[in-house]
Write a structure and sequence with these properties.
By secondary structure, this protein is of the alpha+beta class. Helix content is 16%, strand content 26%. The strands form six sheets. The protein has an eight-stranded mixed β-sheet, with no helix packed on it. Strands 14-13-12-24-25-26 form a six-stranded mixed β-sheet, with helices on one face. It has a four-stranded antiparallel β-sheet with strand order 2-3-9-6. The N and C termini lie far apart (57 Å).
């Protein structure tokens, strides 16, 4: 009896020890068990209503706006006239104001292999009033089309503001659901932070730039009314020497103008803006970022300029995740992480949004910056000065979801799920913001994952960061 009791207890202890060892390794967060459709979706057909061309000859189409200065008192309005230049002038006026103003823009065209673009217009409207609704018209005569936008509140530490997060959108039926879900979310996003991979035109033979045009018409229903702040992904490279196209990012940079010069950047692929209580830094995963490169030198000089007493929320958007536990694209962001993570921790960046991986994931606050070759400290550790890393490359594009994940779930991963959706980053004041991820299959108000974020600058934690050790 005594021998059997001892034998049974030894077995129990052995099993318990094994469980504890597994738990020590599998100390990650939640891997969602939600089952979604894994079928790949084709792009919506060209005769879809979301791609409809305005019925009037040469009417402006693909209208979209973005911020035009550093603080939010300027807007860049862009559109295309397909057949002839037409007018590059924008007529605009404040709500309930009878005085109408005019701003003169420019137009350009480009060629890509056997494609010639329409006439791409860009017009900057300056000296707007904060927190004001403006109406604007593009085109003239019978081609005129009218839209509106609202400027952000004046920059300040306790200004509430709501950002939408979308990435890797494409133009499939799933893409349409994602955009609709965002538009109908009761927590209304005021500006979209788009983390790269826009049209997926490069997925077509000869990088069919006609699919840039369909995508521009598809997003117009949102992007003509609120700014889309975009970063580039690998699908914007359009580098195709076999087609004679050796200038990277040509279609993107011709179609999307951004205010990069106001932040002393030398490239439209990396820049910064202020918006309400947020300071947003846009980086390029597919431009040189090593030491002494223009992007490196710009970011090195940019981060010390951020005044957290004015804009407490420091947000970085990139395309390739610095932390990801999915097998697809695993560690592709590692070299950028090695170059820039110490700065992200030192300057207490609140959150880094990325795309590229066609799924959703949210990290714990971790850093991996103590390694110096000889000390062996090469594992991510909890670090309350570090940002939360959120991958939201789940917009719905034709490449579909990635479902294979590294196992066991690593400790830095708090929640992961391979589903399409969008995010909402809702700033409440200088200390608190709420992030919610919305799965396409759920009701508009349902958050499949969420997190209250405490500002890293205004709500510091006592333990020192390893970046300062």
């Amino acid at each position: 009896m005594g021998v059997k009791w001892m034998s049974d207890n030894i077995l129990v202890l052995a099993v318990l020890g094994l469980i504890l060892r597994i738990a020590e390794v599998c100390d990650g967060g939640i891997t969602s068990s939600y089952v979604r459709n894994k079928d790949l979706a084709r792009d919506m057909p060209l005769d879809s209503d979301v791609f409809r061309v305005p019925p009037v000859y040469n009417a402006p189409q693909q209208v979209h706006i973005t911020q035009g200065d550093h603080e939010g008192k300027s807007v860049i309005i862009s559109w295309i006239t397909p057949d002839e230049p037409g007018s590059s002038t924008v007529l605009y006026w404040a709500e309930n104001c009878e005085v109408k103003n005019r701003a003169k823009g420019i137009f350009l065209t480009y060629k890509y292999f056997n494609y010639t673009s329409g006439y791409i217009h860009h017009c900057t409207i300056d000296n707007l009033e904060f927190d004001t609704k403006y109406y604007y018209e593009v085109g003239f005569g019978y081609t005129t089309r009218q839209f509106w936008f609202r400027t952000p509140p004046s920059v300040g530490p306790d200004v509430p503001y709501t950002f939408g997060l979308i990435g890797d959108l494409g133009q499939t039926p799933d893409s349409n659901i994602t955009l609709t879900h965002y538009e109908l979310n009761p927590t209304k996003g005021q500006t979209v932070l788009f983390v790269g991979d826009l049209s997926y035109a490069d997925a077509y033979p000869f990088h069919d730039n006609g699919r840039w045009d369909t995508w521009g018409r598809f997003i117009e229903r949102s992007a003509a009314y609120q700014p889309w702040i975009t970063t580039v992904g690998n699908h914007e490279l359009d580098f195709a020497p076999d087609l004679g196209e050796t200038k990277p990012f040509k279609p993107y940079t011709k179609r999307f103008h951004v205010p990069y010069k106001v932040s002393k950047s030398t490239s439209p692929l990396w820049y910064s803006i202020k918006r309400a209580s947020a300071y947003i830094i846009v980086l390029s995963s597919y431009s040189a970022y090593g030491k002494y490169t223009p992007q490196y030198k710009w970011l090195e000089s940019e981060l010390p300029k951020v005044n957290r007493a004015e804009t407490p929320w420091l947000i970085v958007i990139i395309h390739c995740p610095l932390y990801s536990s999915y097998v697809h694209h695993y560690m592709e962001g590692e070299t950028m992480r090695v170059m820039y993570e110490k700065w992200l921790v030192e300057y207490k960046v609140d959150v880094v949004f990325a795309g590229h991986v066609h799924a959703y994931e949210r990290s714990e606050r971790v850093s991996n910056i103590a390694y110096n070759i000889v000390n062996g400290l090469c594992e991510p550790i909890g670090d309350q000065s570090a940002p939360v890393y959120i991958t939201i490359g789940d917009g719905g594009n034709l490449e579909g979801l990635v479902t294979e994940m590294t196992e066991p779930q690593p400790s830095y991963s708090a929640y992961r799920e391979a589903s399409f959706g969008h995010g909402i980053f809702d700033i409440k004041n200088r200390t608190h913001a709420f992030f919610g991820w919305h799965r396409n299959q759920d009701g508009y108000a349902v958050e499949a994952d969420s997190l209250w974020l405490h500002n890293r600058y205004w709500k510091p934690f006592r333990e020192p960061s390893v970046a300062l050790l």
